[in-house]
Amino acid sequence: MTISNQPELNITDRDIDCVEIAGLCHDLGHGPWSHVWDSMFIPRVLPGRRWWHELGSEMMLDHMIAEYGIPITAKDQRFVKALIAGDPSKCSPDEKRFLFDIVANKRNGLDVDNIVNSARVIEEQICYDIKDANQLYEICATRFKLHKMIYNHKAAKAIEYMIIDALLAAEPHLRIAERVFDPEKFIFLNDSILNQIESSTVPELAKSRAIVRRIRDRDLYKMVDYKVVEWPFRTLFRDKVTSKKIVDEVKRRASSDPLPDDFPELEEEDVIVDLCTMHYGMKEENPLKFVKFYSKRNPSSCRNAEKGDYSTLQPERFAEVLLRIYTKKPEYWGRVQAGYRQILDSISIEETNTVDSITPPATEPPSTPPAQVSSFTLDAGTSVGTKSARRFSNNSFTTVSPTFSMPKSPTRGGGRKRSRDSRSKSPTRKRNKS
């Protein structure tokens, strides 16, 4: 995006400076472990309190300006903070609207680090040459793949939950959360908190120390089952599959066993139901639906791309939910899985013929009569059509016996990896003498 190509935009040095400052300061408010702090720790410790990392960034910007006497006008300061928030309503209405598409783009999710050289401003928004539509689509698809394969890896999520548990246990003693409202204290919040907990000797941090030690020893919370949930059913699973229901089912099954062994010492807090939403940037919508394009033949006019203007190899929906069940006590692996699957087996809904693209048109007679099941309303956006019964299958790839238990990981230095000498060696082949 070259300013000299569009002098009619009247972009000033002041505009450039403010956008650069906003870009540099946008992530100042991230606490330790980034979004884990924002979305998992703070809401648990400070329920109802208004805080997220953009507010922290604005707080730190105000603090820097005051602390170091940075010469900036009040109007420019408000503008920079509005750019950080991606909210034009927080500043003067005469600011250029397209500048808000750069740092925190709420229009279509394509921030400055995604912008390609063909970007132009048309109709007060950043648009792109239609030839780059496939590149923009790949950016969005790559976002999804990174979340799916890396950011939400099962071990990474387990460690995140363990960090949160360690912080929650330490909070009454360390008073960590309240520091987000004090810039002088906030700047010293980093992941050294775990080192502080680990090196402590006070009894108040014993529970936290034990959790941190488990992380170090790779004795992680165990994922006992998972299922990819289609977008229209996300609320159904959020309501029906809970830690409490799973634990209650585990105990019900144990109490009804004719030859019960030890009754499971399992509490609601020992089971985690992780519902992770992953999408291309705009939830279930195709993000390119919110992007406008131009052509070199008509660079001053823009419109949305239509089907056939770029690749048609696209998913039916652009979002899904990954449901994973974790246990903090691996000795109850099989029982927790069995409890979850009993709940899963009890879920049935009336779904419509528009939920799945492979369902025959309404004009074709159904192969079997629809079953009579209790009604459940799907999430918004699902059309009404011919109703049929739907149940949800278990994951055959994760199935274990209800009595399966996982021994604890070996202690530090216990030889998780085999030495080179202990590995099996393939027989050597004798070389023929010539």
Overview of the structural elements:
- By secondary structure, this protein is an alpha+beta fold.
- The protein has 12 helices and 9 strands.
- It has helices at 13-25, 35-45, 53-68, 74-85, 133-151, 154-174, 183-186, 192-198, 206-216, 234-240, 243-255, 333-346, and strands at 120-122, 125-129, 222-230, 271-279, 292-295, 298-304, 319-327, 348-351, 388-391.
- β5 and β6 form a beta hairpin.
- The longest helix has 21 residues, at 154-174.
- The chain is flat and about 80 Å long.
- The chain starts with 12 loop residues before the first helix and ends in a 43-residue tail after the last strand.
- Mean pLDDT is 85; it is low at 351-377 and 412-431.
Determine the fraction of residues in helical runs and give it as a percent range: 25-40%
The DSSP helix count reads 12
Shape category? flat
The H/E string reads HHHHEEHHHHHEHHEEEEHEE
Report the end-to-end length measured between terminal Cα atoms.
68 Å
The radius of gyration is 27 Å
- Largest sheet properties: 4 strands, mixed
Low-confidence stretches: 351-377, 412-431
Query: Which strand-content bin applies to the residues?
Result: 5-15%
Nearest-integer average pLDDT: 85
Q: Structural class of the helices, strands and pairings? A: alpha+beta
Question: Would you count the extended β strands for me?
Answer: 9
Please list the strands of the largest sheet in the order they lie side by side.
1-2-5-6
List the helices and strands and how they pair.
Blueprint lengths: L12 H13 L9 H11 L7 H16 L5 H12 L34 E3 L2 E5 L3 H19 L2 H21 L8 H4 L5 H7 L7 H11 L5 E9 L3 H7 L2 H13 L15 E9 L12 E4 L2 E7 L14 E9 L5 H14 L1 E4 L36 E4 L43
Helix pairs in contact: 1-4, 2-6, 3-4, 6-9, 11-12
Pfam family, one: HD_assoc_2
Protein name: HD-associated domain-containing protein
Organism: Leucocoprinus leucothites
